[in-house]
Write a structure and sequence with these properties.
Blueprint: H1 5-8, H2 16-29, H3 34-44, E1 70-71, E2 80-84, E3 94-95, E4 99-106, E5 109-113, E6 116-120, E7 125-128, E8 134-137, E9 143-149, H4 159-162, H5 168-176, E10 183-188, H6 196-205, H7 214-232, E11 238-241, H8 249-260, H9 266-272, H10 277-288, H11 292-310, H12 315-321, H13 327-338, H14 342-349
Parallel strand pairs: 1-3
Antiparallel strand pairs: 2-9, 4-7, 4-9, 5-6, 5-8, 7-10, 10-11
């Protein structure tokens, strides 16, 4: 039962975008051609300023089918973002660099994760680590909430979960941070444990508070949810393992980059692993969803974020330590990665509770 006002907001009429996608979906189901669909859309929505290419419509724009698995780049300031999944949006296989917790408020949906279909029911939860390809099918009135969590949100508070032997959710988080999770997802079909769904709704209800307490409360609630799920995991979890075709080498490459990101280049890493440059570039993109350059950037910015929040080092020194010689370029890169300037990020997240990793 939905108890909180902001959660009830999700149980609403369709947004304008959802109305368009529903209209489009119904035409596809009738077997309309791409040209017929586009003509019908323009007739239904005669506003000449609408750019239909801003919508994901593979039947209308066949070239979109060539994109395949795409890295979903989303910029959000806090380490935890809450949003609803767009109803009737066509299946779009993608990966991203954050964790995703999917919660079904109403109805059901199908998650296609790493080649496996997970049929989610009301009040169920699915946790997906970074770099796992997936898509969500939601083609009715069901309401699905996506809780997006950056890697930076997991710190010493989660040690009790991640260090517990045999804790599958802890393993997903611990190894998902560096892209080596053995699990493509963990699905919890029954979340009836006392207080769990209430915690999830409290977390959803904290979105967009825009006050100083929003993020600490969201983080505390997230920790409580993960701890509760960990408690029920042995008896109430469906495990989907990473496809065996994924080369374990990619995990070794990421580990190497974490230790050598300051100076690593595509050519130097290819030489280290005895690959050609084109082949290394290909497998990195294939199994992470992003380019080699973007992978190095993410590792550098993650290291910079840790130094910003856990040390008093000046910005130019942090830039130098992560391998960026120009402070202005460092600030620009960090803003593109986090949605905040380094100073803004430090001011918001500063918490010198532990020593940063070496370097």
């Amino acid at each position: 039962m939905v108890r909180y006002d902001k959660t009830k907001d999700f149980l609403r009429d369709y947004t304008g975008e959802e109305t368009v996608y529903k209209f489009y979906y119904e035409l596809v189901q009738k077997g309309a051609s791409g040209q017929e669909i586009l003509a019908a859309l323009k007739k239904q929505y005669p506003d000449p300023t609408i750019n239909w290419r801003h919508y994901w419509m593979p039947e209308v724009f066949p070239e979109l089918n060539d994109i395949g698995v795409s890295e979903m780049i989303m910029t959000f300031e806090d380490d935890i973002k809450i949003a609803t999944h767009t109803r009737f949006h066509p299946l779009f296989e993608h990966t991203h660099q954050f964790f995703e917790m999917i919660y079904v408020i109403k109805g059901c949906c199908t998650n296609n994760i790493g080649g496996t279909s997970v049929n989610m029911v009301e009040n169920s939860i699915c946790v997906i680590p970074p770099v796992v390809s997936h898509s969500i099918g939601n083609f009715d009135d069901s309401v699905i909430v996506n809780i997006l969590v950056k890697k930076a949100a997991f710190d010493h508070l989660f040690d009790a979960v991640t260090e517990e032997p045999g804790n599958r959710l802890g393993e997903l988080i611990k190894y998902g941070i560096d892209g080596s999770s053995p699990y493509a997802c963990l699905y919890f079909p029954d979340t009836s444990i006392p207080g769990l769904t209430d915690l999830v709704e409290q977390l959803i209800n904290e979105r967009d508070r825009n006050d100083k307490l929003e993020y600490p409360i969201k983080k505390a609630l997230l920790f409580a949810i993960i701890a509760k799920l960990s408690r029920i995991a042995p008896d109430n979890v469906v495990t989907v393992k990473v496809n065996d075709n994924t080369p374990r080498t990619i995990y070794a490459i990421k580990k190497y980059l974490e230790q050598n990101y300051r100076t690593a280049t595509l050519a130097s890493v290819a030489k280290e692993f005895h690959y050609s440059v084109p082949y290394l570039s290909k497998i990195v993109h294939m199994y992470t969803g992003i380019t080699f350059g973007a992978l190095v950037r993410d590792i550098k910015m993650s290291a910079a974020a840790e130094k910003l929040t856990q040390t008093n080092l000046p910005l130019n020194m942090i830039a130098e330590q992560v391998g960026i010689s120009t402070p202005s370029y460092f600030s620009k890169s960090f803003y593109a990665w986090s949605g905040m300037t380094p100073r803004e990020y430090r001011k918001k997240h500063y918490s010198p509770l532990k020593e940063p990793r070496n370097g």
